[in-house]
Write a structure and sequence with these properties.
The complex is a heterodimer of chains A (156) and B (144).
Chain A (H helix, E strand, L loop, with lengths): L2 H13 L2 H6 L2 E6 L2 E6 L6 E3 L4 E2 L1 H14 L13 E8 L9 E10 L3 E9 L5 E10 L8 H8 L4
Antiparallel strand pairs in A: 1-2, 2-6, 3-4, 5-8, 6-7, 7-8
Chain B lengths: L3 H10 L3 H5 L2 H6 L2 E5 L2 E6 L16 H19 L7 E9 L8 E10 L3 E9 L6 E10 L3
Antiparallel strand pairs in B: 1-2, 2-4, 3-6, 4-5, 5-6
The chains are: A alpha+beta (156), B alpha+beta (144).
């Protein structure tokens, strides 16, 4: 699978997630088992009105989405894998008025479970948060064919 | 963060609307809170914009996380007479069932409060409290 195919699959997947659209998440780069997404700054997701710092929940959603979607970049066939757990460590508040990026990788794939790591950072490279996640493989047949075709877009 | 007058009003009246109105992310996901005696029940009404998986359809896991995270912060602020939102250090979240497109509830428990750090347990459910959709624990840094 080429990186362009990965990128397009993730973009089509993202397009189906209401909350990802609400937040304006975009896909920046995709590779074999790696994926970078971007969360633009918005007044609507501020958690601390005094400082303008965005709420951790928006960063959790960014990292959950990136970690869940990097699986698309790691497997040949599209499978929807529910999140089993997420652990997020917050290093520092995100600087206001700047986007937050998240880069995720799958670091272990087994028959039943996929293990992911994800780092959220801003321009300049300072880490905002780290996240590890586990996702369950319920098999591609568990996802309706119509939806799988929508994601793969009949490209192959 | 918070306007002391709004906090005082919230503590005295048990009406969280002004407090939640002042936090954009709470409005963004639609978080609400009701007080019953000393207990707080947090509520996330059904909302199309909060969905992730469109097939079930299910609430985005990140929104469930954000809902529980913010619930824990408000709970902690209320339980310790603090004037500011505590800062989150880490958050560990187990998804137990799909959060379907319906109203979700959460309650919190202070597991341990030290001088500088507090540990909070959060449980979220939909139809029945005995069937949680997610459990989480969070550490918060208390203000000096």
């Amino acid at each position: 699978m080429t990186d362009d195919i990965r990128l397009n699959r993730v973009r089509r997947f993202l397009e189906t997630l209401n909350q990802a659209r609400e937040l304006g998440l975009t896909v920046e780069a995709a590779g074999d088992g790696v994926l970078t997404m971007c969360l633009p700054y918005s007044d609507r997701i501020i958690g601390n009105p005094d400082t303008g710092v965005i709420h951790g929940g928006a960063i959790t959603t960014l990292m959950d989405t990136t970690s869940g979607s990097v699986i698309i970049c790691a497997l040949e066939d599209f499978e929807l894998c529910p999140t089993l757990d997420l652990r997020v460590d917050y290093m520092r508040p995100a600087e206001p008025h700047k986007p937050v990026f998240a880069r995720a990788e799958t670091y272990k794939i087994t028959r039943n479970i996929i293990f992911t790591r994800c780092e959220a950072y801003q321009e300049g490279g300072e880490t905002i948060a780290n996240c590890v996640g586990t996702f369950m493989r319920i098999g591609k047949e568990a996802t309706p064919k119509g939806y799988r075709d929508l994601i793969t877009g009949g490209e192959e | 963060m918070t306007d002391p007058e709004i906090l005082r009003h919230t503590r005295e009246s048990g009406d969280f609307s002004r407090l939640l109105e002042s936090v954009p992310y709470a409005r963004f996901i639609g978080l609400e809170c009701d007080r019953f005696g000393d207990d707080l029940i947090f509520r996330l009404p059904k909302k199309e914009e909060n969905l992730g998986n469109p097939i079930l359809p299910a609430i985005h896991g990140g929104v469930i996380g954000g809902f529980m995270e913010m619930s824990a912060a408000i709970y902690l602020m209320m339980s310790q007479d603090s004037m500011s939102m505590p800062r989150i250090v880490d958050f560990s979240l187990d998804y137990l069932r799909a959060g379907l497109n319906r109203e979700t509830f959460a309650e919190c428990r202070l597991t341990r409060q030290g001088n500088r750090v507090a540990n909070v347990m959060i449980t979220a459910w939909q139809k029945s409290r005995s069937q949680p959709i997610a459990t989480a624990r969070a550490h918060f840094l208390l203000e000096d």
